[in-house]
Amino acid sequence: MPRLGFAWTPQRNGKTVVRGSFGFFNDVPPLNFLVANTGMPNGGSAGVHANPGGAAPVYTIALSSINLTTGTPIFGAASPRPPFGAFAINPDFATPYVMNMNLNVQQQLTSSTLLQVGYVGSQDRKLSFLRNINAPLPGTTGTVAARRPFDAAYPELAAINELASNVNSSYHSMQTQLRQTMAKGFTGVLNYTWGHAIDFGSDVRNNLPTNSYDLTNEKGNASFDTRHNLTAFMSYEVPVFTKALPLLMKGWQLNSLITAYGGQPLNLLAGTNISTSGDGRDRVNLVGDPFSGVVQPTGTRSVRYFNAAAFAAPAAGTFGNIGRNALYGPGFGALDFSVFKTTAITERVSTQFRLEVFNLTNRTNWANPGTSLSNTAAFGIMTNTRNGGGAPGIGVGEPRNIQLALKFVF
């Protein structure tokens, strides 16, 4: 695929460099898009290998509220009875491709300080997407089966999940970096990115649109979209202030790492089959300000993130009026700090003692709140930190941790 890049220095031996690039890149859809879509909420087939046809058909049937009785077939008969779920591949399925591009300016401020500012973006085309092409048409009149488009010709089929390549995505960002190399013992790097990722669906497997007949309503913030990202690393080698006690006074180093970024999107779902599509992706209606009148629960460590009264279930036969990934969850912030002491034993052997403190300020970094309206006890409530609320350990979202280590270098 064609690619182009350049670097330009406006002045000979100058301190400014302009760089840019543009390129096409083909993608390869993973095999599990075709054969491993397990747990589809609408009872559709798991893939091409599990269709109700051929010499060895596989029947995907969804049942609820059943009683298991000895000697009685689970599905009401010795042989499975329709309607069955199916899987299809659009005959126009195409190879997806990506257009990556960037343009940045790098400026040397001092002999040890460098500033870089640039644009980085991508345009993705013909991306894989899964939708139910036999979902009941929206509405409340008639039976669910009668509202399926293929019911007259294929009454034995229910959900037909089709894999197609008919959606796009985009990413735009401003990326900046300030780098300070060794200067009087100080080294540091500051990175900040403002970015925005937009797509029609961030996960192909086991993921369906709210309304398979209106994909324009799926265009929204990508599930991984994070608008603001900041990281900063600083290291300082402590100078030796006295010649006394050289083993004790030499080899001290202070380090810190700052990480901060905004929250990720929340896709608020009704949690019930209000539209009768059976796809399990109905959204909610926005009826108020989610961040007004928030009352915190009592007698618990949980925290309410938004006001649940600002949302309501949509009318029967509709899909909700809120956009996909319209709200954002809580942000993240952490300050890590460490002290290193390196002591030379011989010319080739040394030890390094480390005192490392993770999340020095002991900030609580909440995971996203509950997003299903039908689960009233959890809707809008934050109960876990980013690592899932398990036993405290070392990692993103954990409470303050202190670690001691002794390292031998030879």
Give an overview of the whole structure:
The structure is a single chain. This protein is mainly β. The protein has one domain (3-27, 96-126, 168-409). Helix content is 2%, strand content 40%. It has helices spanning 32-35, 246-249; strands at residues 3-8, 16-26, 84-89, 97-110, 113-132, 157-183, 186-199, 220-221, 228-237, 252-261, 265-266, 285-286, 303-304, 311-312, 327-328, 332-344, 350-358, 381-382, 401-409. The strands form four sheets. Strands 1, 2, 3, 4, 5, 6, 7, 8, 9, 10, 16, 17 and 19 form a 13-stranded mixed beta sheet that branches. It is elongated. The two termini are 47 Å apart. The model has no long low-confidence stretch (mean pLDDT 91).
Quick overview:
This protein is mainly beta. The protein contains 2 helices and 19 strands. The protein has helices spanning 32-35, 246-249, and strands at residues 3-8, 16-26, 84-89, 97-110, 113-132, 157-183, 186-199, 220-221, 228-237, 252-261, 265-266, 285-286, 303-304, 311-312, 327-328, 332-344, 350-358, 381-382, 401-409.
